[in-house]
Design brief:
The complex is a heterodimer of chains A (about 90) and B (about 170).
Chain A: E1 4-6, E2 14-18, H1 23-35, E3 39-43, H2 49-62, E4 70-73, E5 77-80, H3 84-90
Parallel strand pairs in A: 2-3
Antiparallel strand pairs in A: 1-3, 2-4, 4-5
Chain B: H1 8-24, E1 28-29, H2 33-50, H3 64-67, H4 77-84, E2 92-93, H5 95-98, H6 114-117, E3 135-138, E4 144-146, E5 164-166
Antiparallel strand pairs in B: 1-2, 3-4, 3-5
Helix pairs in contact in B: 1-2
The chains are: A alpha+beta (about 90), B alpha+beta (about 170).
Chain lengths: ~90, ~170
């Protein structure tokens, strides 16, 4: 699955599954940029069908509801939705 | 219209339509205009992609029959407004949020996960033997009407005929 990379401070493996049309996904991406950490993101709604299926299967492993935004940290910690305090807390700010 | 063709003017026009429909039904759009207009843009994108305005914060698979519950206004808006003061994407907010008595909090998705969606239950229909007309219920706002067929558009929430179910 092709991810877009945003440069920044290394805070582990940070992956954001988002939708290009979603306001809360936009706010989450904005917050990660504000925190200045490096992360990868993918707009799942823009993926071709097969890749979309793979992305959904990955998201559902960590977030059974399959909802957006899903933020995955180091392949184990997951933050579902734009939970600003939790996201700031996860990156020590 | 392709995604790239959606102009600020299109967004503004659709915002005005949604705002006036919301007011007439006693609903409110989110007063954060910048955020709200991004969602309206998302709805127009989805309408051009899928042929219907699926929720901008949920993933559509472009199969209308499977997405009827998330066509905006979605079937989950009213219970979310009651419980959280906003719908899932926060296009719509409650009186309390509008008057700043409450602040917005993230709304968990009330839509059942994919694995449970196929077994979506239909409502219990009460026997209508003694009624002169069937009764139709709007799945979005609960409006009921007794007539041969459901109305083309819900007079309260503007949901289309396909969102109605037989109630009695």
């Amino acid at each position: 699955m092709k991810m877009e990379h945003v440069d920044g401070r290394d805070a582990g493996k940070v992956v954001l599954f988002a939708l290009s049309t979603c306001g809360w996904c936009g706010k989450t991406k904005g917050l990660l940029k504000e925190l200045g950490i490096a992360f990868d993101f993918v707009y799942v709604d823009l993926l071709p069908p097969e890749e979309m299926d793979n992305a959904i299967a990955t998201i559902e492993k960590y977030n059974p509801a399959g909802s957006f935004p899903t933020l995955l940290i180091d392949d184990k910690n997951v933050i579902i939705g734009f939970r600003e305090e939790e996201i700031r807390g996860a990156f020590g700010k | 219209m392709t995604t790239a063709d959606i102009s600020d003017d299109d967004v503004e026009k659709q915002f005005q339509v949604l705002d006036s429909e919301a007011r007439s039904g006693g609903y409110h759009l989110n007063p954060d205009l910048e955020f709200t207009k991004k969602l309206v843009h998302g709805l127009l994108v989805n309408e051009s992609r899928y042929g219907y305005p699926a929720c901008p914060c949920r993933l559509s698979r472009s199969i209308k029959a499977e997405d009827l519950d998330i066509i905006c206004p979605c079937n989950y808006r009213d219970p979310d407004l009651d419980q959280y003061g906003a719908c899932y994407c926060a296009l719509y907010v409650s009186d309390a949020i509008l008057s700043k008595k409450k602040s917005l909090i993230p709304v968990p998705d009330r839509r059942p996960p994919r694995s449970e969606r196929n077994s979506r239950k239909t409502i219990h229909t009460i026997s209508s033997g003694s009624l002169s007309y069937p009764v139709w219920r709007c799945r979005v706002c609960g409006y009921l009407c007794a007539r041969e067929e459901a109305p083309l558009v819900c007079p309260v929430c503007k949901a289309k005929k396909e969102r109605f179910e037989r109630f009695m």
